[in-house]
Specification:
This protein has seven helices and six strands. By secondary structure, the chain is α/β, with parallel strands linked by helices. The protein has a six-stranded mixed sheet with strand order 2-3-1-4-5-6, sandwiched between helices. The N terminus is likely disordered.
């Protein structure tokens, strides 16, 4: 692993640990990413909320690696639009999200595959860039998008590969200011390709 941010060091995160923030655009009903990652280490002890920023230390034993990959994951509540921040709880959730982004080295912007890129996603990405963080994109609920395509294939796409390629191009177009950011298609609920994003996190750190 390469550079280790001074903010991460100030937060007491060991140099051997890769600090990662998961940043959805708005509050998730449960801390589903951390719950899935917790299962990767054999058990689940993550509370069912992302109103607060939830932390998880994860030692992931990758096949072929002598030492486990060490991560500290910060699952945030995301950022609501200003006009929708109507309670003190919403306000402090946003503050904690920004603080978590400041502490980590890598930020994963979590998109909903069924909705695509929104204005709020772009605002979150811009904030991460302003903080000088490495940024990757997680397209969550990809399993649901594929299920929808299989049940009712869209015209103009020969197969799932063509559909995925077109979706990726669409994300690239909307996130034109992130030409080099990796994009992972995952499902936190089903576990689809969840290990891939840990590899991306390691590569970016």
């Amino acid at each position: 692993m390469s550079a280790f941010s001074t903010s991460a060091a100030a937060a007491g995160i060991p140099h051997s640990v890769s600090p990662i923030a998961l940043a959805p655009r708005a509050l998730l009903p449960e801390s589903i990413f951390l719950r899935r990652c917790s299962r990767l280490r054999g058990h689940c002890d993550v509370p069912g909320t992302t109103r607060e920023t939830v932390e998880l230390d994860l030692d992931y034993q990758c096949e072929g690696s002598e030492e486990p990959w060490k991560f500290r994951l910060f699952d945030t509540a995301g950022l609501k639009r200003r006009k929708r921040v109507d309670t003190s709880l919403d306000y402090f959730s946003s503050v904690r999200t920004k603080h978590a982004i400041e502490e980590v080295d890598v930020v994963f912007l979590v998109l909903d595959a069924r909705e695509g890129v929104t204005k709020q996603d772009k605002i979150l990405a811009d904030h991460a860039l302003q903080e000088g963080k490495a940024l990757a994109i997680l397209v969550n609920k990809w399993d649901l998008a594929l299920d929808g395509f299989r049940k009712d294939p869209l015209p103009g796409y020969e197969d799932e590969h063509a559909f995925r390629k077109a979706y990726l191009q669409s994300v690239r177009k909307e996130m034109f200011f992130l030409p080099d950011s990796p994009i992972c298609f995952v499902s936190a609920k089903s576990g689809y390709a969840m290990q891939d994003f840990l590899q991306v996190a390691r590569d970016l750190d």
